[in-house]
Amino acid sequence: MPPKPSKVDIAESIADLMNGIAGWILIVFGIAASLSGVGGALQQANTAEMVAPLVVLGFGLLLTVAGIFVNPRFRRRLDRRHRLSRFGQVETVENATVSETEYGDTLCVSCGSGQNDGLVRRYRQEYVVAGVPLWTVSENYNVYCPSCALEEFPSLSTTNGDTNDTQEQAIAETE
Questions:
Q1: What whole-number distance in Å separates Cα of residue 142 and Cα of residue 120?
Q2: Which of 59, 64, 138, 175 has its CA 20 to 30 Å from the CA of residue 150?
Q3: Are 99 and 118 in contact (CB under 8 A)?
Q4: Taking the CB of residue 171, how many other CB atoms lie within 10 A of it?
Q5: What is the largest CA-CA distance in the chain?
Q6: Sites in the chain below the pLDDT cut of 70
Q7: pTM for this entry
Q8: Which of 86, 161, 76 is nearest to 122 (CA)?
Q9: End-to-end CA distance of the chain, in Å?
Q10: So what's the pLDDT on residue 164?
């Protein structure tokens, strides 16, 4: 039986849901305002009354950008961004520490022990445009217990004291 979620986990999921709703509302209103501003600018072309539609257009763009940064789905994609010059298919590996509750009853891929804390290596193959991942083609992960993680990846040391540190590195990039 999976462990019961804590109050903090429930609060975080509700906060993500509310941020997602607020982000989508901002995006919809921003697109509507941008379209209104473009329409007004086209109707008022070459006149002095064009200032108001341009202000509405700017406000709409501001709302859209704010909605993108508020929405957790877009934020996660922006956190995984690559170089601005990257286009096409990119394969990445992400190393992160894992606690006992994150991946349930997974076994260490090296020794097969049932210890649930250690290192998780997430492999992603995704399509990116201007460095921002648009969609993920495939995603897989391996979980290592702490001793196997230190044996197989000696370059990953825990001397910095930050247990939630995430390192991302591109292992192969194809255009």
A1: 6
A2: 138
A3: no
A4: 9
A5: 74
A6: 1-3, 99-105, 115-116, 155-175
A7: 0.58
A8: 76
A9: 44
A10: 41
